[in-house]
Design brief:
single chain, alpha/beta, Rossmann fold, eight-stranded mixed beta sheet, 11 helices, 8 strands, 12% strand
Length: 352
């Protein structure tokens, strides 16, 4: 054993020498590799220079004013600053326009995706929204006008049919036509829906309950006195006028505006009047003031079978519509559904 140990001790310097030799060889190989990598990169650069010669794309230029004089560096900085500020302003303007665009209903699917309400009707855009009042007009030489009128009437036929079968047990006896803001076309919807219901054989009363901005008497070319206001304020007898275009349609105009119409709409007298209307007619349709600006429609709608909301495409704001629906829900009122107004013909899902 001692001899073995002595022999290994004698051989140890040999192993150390071999290890040192290997270390030197590794160091030389590493240096050689690094040199080769450097040479490779140099050759690649030279090759690129030969294949795509380097050249000056354009001469350096100085910014000059309209007279040809060089612009000082401070002026250049001002121009750069103005450019940056202009870009930021343009970007902010684009964002604001985009937000405004997003806050308006542009398509029917925008309404369907945003709110859990049935779309009961799609009314195409029309330059003549009181179309049922114009049977005497001769369109025999205007095929486009005839087609537009047919499409418009077909839309209200579809609206009436949807409401008739969706709410048949029990049937609707009274409806409040409402909108979030003015200008959505609710008066036109109320008038044409009343005409359509009357044409189906129902005995219909159309009431202009918008005492702030009445429209129906103008649309039908009727006198506005006396009307609903006089019926509310005193026991004056009011004559309901028959529509010149339908024997089944009767109209009660708004009459003289009241000082506190919301209080009158919430009165027991108004509730009794509405009950009397419902006993005398198959269907009573109320045209109301917009829900965001006035509270009248809320009190009136509470005594009807429900609210029919009108949304005007490219006009009604999503935020205002949501605010109104939250208000309807908070007050415990019934919303029957939505009528989408001013739909482009190409976007209609109901065939003419």
């Amino acid at each position: 054993t001692k001899n073995t140990v002595d022999r290994e001790v004698q051989e140890f310097p040999i192993f150390v020498r071999k290890y040192n030799d290997l270390q030197r060889q590794l160091q030389i190989a590493t240096q050689t590799l690094n040199q080769l990598e450097t040479q490779k990169e140099t050759l690649q650069v030279e090759k690129a220079q030969r294949e795509v010669p380097w050249e000056i794309v354009s001469q350096p230029q100085l910014l000059r004013d309209p007279t040809g004089q060089p612009i000082a560096e401070s002026s250049q900085n001002k121009l750069i600053l103005l450019g940056v500020m202009g870009g930021l302003s343009l970007g902010m303007g684009t964002v604001l326009l985009y937000d405004k665009y997003r806050n308006i209903f542009y398509e029917i699917k925008d309404i369907e995706e945003s709110h859990n309400l049935p779309v009961l009707g799609e009314i195409p855009f029309s330059k003549n929204p009181e179309i049922f009042n114009n049977y005497s007009v001769d369109y025999s030489n205007d095929e486009d006008k005839i087609y537009d009128d047919h499409r418009f009437k077909k839309a209200f036929d579809s609206l009436y049919t949807n409401m008739h079968f969706r709410f048949c047990n029990p049937p609707l006896r009274s409806i409040a036509i409402c909108s979030a803001m003015a200008g959505d076309g609710k008066s036109s919807v109320a008038l044409n829906l009343a005409h359509m219901a009357a044409s189906k054989g129902q005995r219909v009363l159309l009431v202009d309950a918008n005492l702030h901005s009445p429209q129906l008497h103008s649309n039908l070319n009727l006198q506005n006195l006396p009307g609903l206001s006089e019926l509310l304020s005193n026991d004056q007898e009011v004559v309901m006028e028959r529509s010149p275009f339908s024997d089944n349609l009767f109209v009660l105009t708004s009459g003289q505006s009241l000082v506190d119409s919301a209080q009158d709409m919430a009165s027991t007298r108004m509730e009794k009047i509405m009950g009397h209307f419902q006993e005398k007619f198959d269907l009573v349709i109320y045209d109301t003031p917009n829900l965001l600006s006035y509270t009248d429609a809320n009190f009136l709608a509470a005594n009807t079978d429900g609210i029919l909301m009108v949304v005007g495409l490219r006009g009604t704001k999503k935020s205002q519509f949501k605010q109104v629906l939250d208000q309807i829900d908070r007050f415990g009122l019934t919303c029957l559904g939505v009528v989408v107004n001013r739909v482009q013909p190409s976007s209609l899902t109901v065939s003419p």
